Amino acid sequence: MIGLGTYAFFWQHSDLVPEPLSLVGAFEATRELDVDLFQICDYAPLDEMDAHELEDAAAAARDLGVHVQLGTKGIEPDRLHRYLDLAGVFDAGLVRSMLYGPDSRPTPGQAEDWLRGMLPRYEAAGVTLALETYEQVATGDLVALIDRIGSDRLGVCLDPANVVARLELPRDCVELTAGLVKNVHAKDFAFARQPGWVGFTYGGAPMGAGLHDYRHLLDAVQPRDRGVDEIVEHWLSWQGDAETTIRTEREWTRTTLEYLRSTK
Predict the structure, then answer these.
(1) Mean pLDDT across the stretch 81-105?
(2) 206/150 Cα distance (integer angstroms)
(3) Which Gene3D superfamilies did the record assign (predicted)?
């Protein structure tokens, strides 16, 4: 299934725009684009909502026919327990996270202990935990950890854009993780020369216009045959003013949806 995530609404949620979009507003915008899956990922206000606000947001998603996934950073037991509870509120079948959180950098052994301790609860609840590929942890180390634990409810959130900062090739990341992928973050990326031709900037690109060989990802991972969701997000830099930035963000979302829908 193709879905949208909060990173597709990064600037629309931002305090830099005159009227930041609410979570329910993002659900509504998602439905208007004929999409019925939304990943609430690294969305700080979620952790500040009280029980009543959470129930209202979950009810709004259900009323709109929008299925919800969740995303956080870190695998500390308290965090994973909190997000399992939130998964229950939102009827979410997947939680995306990363090995390192804002305040924790577990050793490999500690990470394995934490995950082994929490996964029986995720398994019992029917919730999948997907750990994202990113530059702070080698893809091979992430794969080895998941393989050692060997749970059907633990896998990879594949984002090959992130690993470039570790000097890994996106294509290698895709091939190494293919059999373990539970979730895909779909965005394109490219290098651009900085002004004066001194150095490069690595950032986002409209889907299909950058360096991401998405066809290779589809062939290697086969997400649509395996029921793996593809979540649209962007690396869009500020475009100089709020109006231009929001317009561009929305255009990139439409472009990405058209691209994904056109591929088989």
Answers:
(1) 97
(2) 36
(3) Divalent-metal-dependent TIM barrel enzymes
What amino acid is encoded at 138 in this protein?
Answer: A
Task: Give CA separation, 244 vs 6, 11, 186, 238, 249, in Å.
Answer: 19, 11, 23, 9, 9
Q: Both tokens of residue 51?
A: 């029980």
User: How far is the C-alpha of 116 from the C-alpha of 120, rounded, in Å?
Assistant: 7
**Which DSSP state fits 228?**
-
Q: What percent of the chain shows pLDDT beyond 70?
A: 100
CATH number 3.40.50.1110 is the correct assignment for the domain at 2-262: no
Residue 194 burial by Cβ neighbours in a 10 Å radius (0-12, 13-18, 19+): exposed
What are residue 150's phi and psi, to 5 degrees? 65, 40
Tally of CB atoms within 10 A around 102 = 8
Q: Are 83 and 61 in contact (CB under 8 A)?
A: no
pLDDT at 196: 83
Q: Read off the pLDDT of each residue in 243-262 and give the average, rounded to a whole number.
A: 98
Can you read off the two tokens belonging to residue 242? 């709020």
> What is the predicted pLDDT for the residue at 138?
98
CA separation for the pair 232, 185 (Å, rounded): 6
pLDDT (0 to 100) of residue 264: 80
Do the beta carbons of residue 26 and residue 38 sit within 8 Å?
yes
CA angle 107/81/27 to nearest 5° reads 115
What is the pTM for the complete model shown?
0.96
106 close to 114: Cβ distance less than 8 angstroms? yes
Q: Which pLDDT value is given to residue 68?
A: 98
Does 197 score more than 90 pLDDT? Answer: no
Q: Are 11 and 235 in contact (CB under 8 A)?
A: no
